[in-house]
Amino acid sequence: MRFRLSTLMALAALAMTGVMLYLAIFEPQVLTEYAAFLSFILLLFVVGIIFARFEESELSSKEVALIGILGAIIAASRIPFAALPNIQPCTFLIIITGLVFGSLAGAMAGATTAAVSNLFFGQGPWTAWMMVAWGMVGIVSGMVGKRLKDEVTVTHVVLLGVVLGLAYNTLMDFSSWLTFYRASPNLFLPTFIAGVPYGILHVTGNVIFAVILGKPVLTLFNRFRRRTRVRYVLEDDGEDAPSPLSSEACPVSTAGNRTK
Known about the structure:
Blueprint: H1 5-26, H2 28-56, H3 61-78, H4 90-101, H5 103-121, H6 125-148, H7 154-179, H8 188-228, E1 232-233, E2 240-241
Antiparallel strand pairs: 1-2
Helix pairs in contact: 1-2, 2-5, 2-6, 3-4, 3-5, 4-5, 4-6, 4-7, 4-8, 5-6, 6-7, 7-8
């Protein structure tokens, strides 16, 4: 039986999680000593799941190119706001990417944003945490977008900006406690309390970007989605088959073969 790479990555992530839980229960001192290293390995497996799922997907070449372009644009959008503390359009754009293009596209855009933008801001153990955190933002947004379908509004973007902005900062605060303070119980609350102002700024920035740019960006991304959707028709019965990211399709057809 042949396993997919994403399945192997998921099994490895579960195994690493089990190791960390065992150490937390029976060897807490060992976990404290190696928490940063073990968590980093776990994050690599999680990021590996995202990239493996992307590689295994049946996306058309247009969709792959679009996701790559979106990731580069979102990463570049972080640079002009470097002087502002935790106010940046990245989370806002990743949310809309997930809402419009789905969880896989949102996760890839989020992971790519962290990896590429940190070439400018500086790489470190925080990069893997940012890739997972922004990937999570894209995945959750894609799940919400799947339920809402074509009824996504600016209000939804604002609400997701608040909820996912807080979730992102909470995860990053946890990473600081785990990586830089070696999971010291005495520094758990102080670490999260110190991150509250940055979380508020992050959420405020998400709301501002959503209110000002939410409608035009949603319109633009929906237009891109319509242009990249592929539809094919079987010659024998003429039944339509949906593209991998959506049940919608643009009026492009081939005789039973997927257009790449």
